[in-house]
Design brief:
The structure is a single chain. The chain has 29 helices and 15 strands. By secondary structure, it is of the alpha/beta class. Strand 7, helix 17 and strand 8 form a beta-alpha-beta unit. Helix 8 packs across helix 11, helix 9 crosses helix 15 and helix 14 crosses helix 15.
Length: about 700
């Protein structure tokens, strides 16, 4: 099976789409570039489909590499024949491949290996023939060396038979299917830990049992975390008697002394070899699926967070709230540059009001950003007491991860002369102006918008989150003259080194005036230019197309369109009436077809327009300051701040977020939570239950 057939077997994509996508990938084209500017070649595949091809290619390549290793190992043992080689080369399941390799895998010496060294393989073969009628007599012939008795000889022979049973692919496949369909996961509390306060959050799993197949991913992750923390023991099992009977039906042909020995070997093989390996395998597979599920939840949340509405280029006063150490206040200009910083104290309200008012007037502040941490509501109340000379919008900003940024090398490089409190406040203000540009500076895992992100496969998590960040950055586009190293590094074809070169060139030569000038950046070659240029924007450029998503390779087409309509380029761009009159068939070429032309027209209608929505002011219920203020039945405004498989968490303006269980989202709903709510969505919730002792709040969105 070639790579094309392998990918086809795992997707429903057309041959030509797969072939051309693989060709573009081999030419170092990025996913965003292929999805946006090579639609004719891929038959309009989107980022997800292209990433899927890339993912399957990676699995295929790893499988081929593993096959070569296995073939070499078996060949070195002198055990490779044409039949086995054919099976290995034509296997495209990693599980089946490892089953084929199992008899030849070098590992520590087993009981069977020792029995073979003692010369007992002949006895094992006699037993497996199931023809011997006097095993007592037969086994005596093998008493020699370390073997002192007939029973020792039979035991050694059984170890060899158990090894054969374990290596039989048909038996492993049959049991594997049984584990997949009917395995039960059971957890028992470790008695010595039962009274530990930390274990109480896992009390539901002190004596738990359910079908592994039906166990929801979030519950499996909770069970595995409880086991990892040493509070419970987990066991995966199937009906043992049925399993033994199924093996026996494949091994035993008649009932005699030999069959009795084989039955003992079957029990030994199941208990010592098959059950441990297959239970671990099925749990590992279940964990991988749960990981994939959790990673997708995290990725979807991250995408929504990164693409949340920006305020734009405004002068912002940002406050990082605090009681004891005060609120750190900073003033930023429209480009996010720090202009002023100070500290105010909520208990000195007159002095604080004076400082804020002075700063607002001095730095022509347009909006105020308040971090949503401790003292956030009190800080908001103080701000609302002030009568400003103009209308100042006030926003509560999610500050998750701001402390990570403030202590990072990126922050130290940006603000070497300021401490972490100032840097954190700057991050809060910049998040309001442009969430995407600021959040890319932080390790996505630190933002905390998912479930069990520290328990999943960290390599796969990073790969998926990097893909999401890349998608978001390229979807929005980047102003090359204001973007940070961090933001530029996610642009298609750029990466950290070229991003640093762009910033260095910008510092030395001033702002870029055209896309052609980007070619002058050191080490930014033709391929990097091709992949990145259309995602880089230059405001107020001489050529207005330089501030659009139109790729320079299509500039000639746009100029021809303008010429055909007898319109100057500046007047042509953005003129929807003229754009609607064009017959796109007149502009098709061998490389550019209708899909790309439609994208060009769409972009020309609103060149450089940010695809994100407009930011909205939100206000919490002013009377709710702490969990003690909550009462069952209250209807409150809230903001969704995390989405999981079992429900969503809603910020209602206090320290503790409330949970809306999936059953409380929508009447009769049984689908995905993310299909009903999204991150940062403004919602109305009803208080269902308040557990002050455990700091837990149950909410409902289904109360019409």
């Amino acid at each position: 099976m070639e790579i094309l057939d392998y990918i086809k077997s795992n997707t429903d994509l057309r041959d030509i789409s797969i072939i051309n996508t693989l060709k573009l990938i081999s030419e170092d084209c990025t996913v965003p570039f292929i999805a946006r500017y090579r639609k004719e070649m891929t038959n309009n595949l989107d980022e997800v489909q292209i990433s899927n091809i890339l993912s399957h290619k990676k699995v295929y390549d790893e499988l081929e590499k593993r096959k070569k290793t296995i073939l070499k190992s078996i060949e070195e043992q002198g055990a490779l024949d044409s039949s086995l080689e054919h099976k290995i080369k034509n296997t495209f399941s990693s599980t089946d491949l490892e089953d084929l390799y199992l008899p030849y895998k070098k590992s520590r010496k087993t009981k069977a290996d020792k029995a073979r060294e003692q010369g007992l393989e002949g006895l094992a073969k006699i037993i497996m023939s199931q023809n011997a009628n006097d095993l007592e007599y037969t086994s005596h012939k093998f008493i020699k060396g370390e073997i002192q008795s007939s029973e020792e000889a039979l035991e050694g022979a059984r170890h060899i038979i158990a090894d054969w049973i374990n290596e039989r692919i048909d038996i492993r496949t049959s049991l594997r299917n049984e584990f997949k369909r009917r395995a039960t996961i059971t957890s028992k509390v470790i008695k010595t830990k039962a009274t530990d306060e930390k274990v109480q959050k896992y009390k539901d799993y002190f004596d738990w049992s359910e079908s592994l197949f039906r166990c929801p991913s979030h519950r499996l992750m909770a069970l595995l975390r409880a086991e990892k923390e040493g509070f419970v023991r987990i066991k995966i099992d199937i009906d043992k008697e049925q399993a033994l009977s199924r093996i026996a039906s494949k091994m035993i042909r008649s009932q005699n002394e030999c069959s009795e020995q084989i039955e003992l070997a079957i029990k030994d093989a199941y208990k010592r070899l098959l059950a441990p390996a297959l239970s671990n395998e099925v749990l590992t597979n279940a964990k991988e699926k749960a990981d994939a599920n959790a990673i997708q939840v995290f990725a979807k949340n991250l995408q929504q967070l990164l693409l949340q509405a920006p305020l734009g280029e405004k002068n912002i006063l940002a406050l990082d709230p605090g009681f004891r150490t005060g609120c750190k206040m900073v003033c930023l200009d429209a480009y996010g540059n720090l202009k002023h910083n100070d500290t105010i104290y909520l208990h000195k309200d007159r002095e604080a009001i004076g400082k804020i008012t002075t700063a607002v007037n001095a730095y022509k502040i347009d909006a105020i950003a308040i971090g949503n941490g401790t003292a956030s509501r009190e800080t908001e109340s103080l701000i609302k007491k002030i009568r400003f000379e103009k209308d100042i919008q006030v926003f509560i900003v999610n500050e998750a991860g701001a402390s990570i940024y403030s202590a990072s090398k990126i922050a130290r490089d940006e603000f070497p002369n300021y401490d972490v409190t100032v840097r954190g406040s700057v991050s809060i203000g910049r998040r309001l102006a442009d969430p995407l540009a600021e959040l890319v500076k932080i390790d996505a895992k630190s933002i905390g918008v998912g479930q069990y992100q520290h328990d999943v496969d960290q390599t796969k998590l990073k790969e998926e989150l990097d893909r999401v960040v890349e998608f978001c950055v390229n979807k929005v586009g980047v102003n090359i003259n204001t973007a940070s190293n961090s933001l530029l590094s996610y642009v298609s074809g750029i990466g950290p080194k070229l991003a640093a070169n762009i910033v260095a060139y910008r510092k030395e030569n001033g702002a870029f005036e055209s896309r052609d000038q980007i070619k002058k950046v050191p080490r930014l070659g033709a391929k990097a230019y091709q992949q990145s240029v259309a995602f880089l924007r230059i405001k107020d450029a001489k050529n207005p197309l330089d501030n659009s998503a139109v790729h320079p390779e299509s500039y000639a087409i746009v100029k021809k369109m303008a010429k055909d309509t007898k319109t100057a380029l500046d007047d042509f761009i953005g003129n929807r009436d003229i754009l609607k009159t064009l017959d796109l068939n007149n502009y098709c070429t061998d490389a550019v077809g209708i899909p790309t032309l439609k994208d060009i027209i769409s972009e020309l209608e609103k060149p450089g327009l940010d695809p994100r929505k407009k930011v909205k002011v939100f206000e919490f219920n002013a009377t709710i300051k702490t969990i003690d203020d909550l009462k069952t039945g209250q209807i409150l405004p809230g903001i969704v701040n995390n989405v999981t498989n079992f429900g969503c968490f809603v910020n209602i303006g206090i320290k503790e977020s409330g949970l809306v269980h999936i059953s409380k989202l929508k009447k009769g709903y049984v689908g995905n939570v993310s299909d009903v709510v999204h991150l940062n969505q403004h919602v109305q919730v009803r208080v269902e239950e308040v557990d002050i002792a455990r700091k837990r709040i149950q909410l409902s969105m289904n109360f019409d």
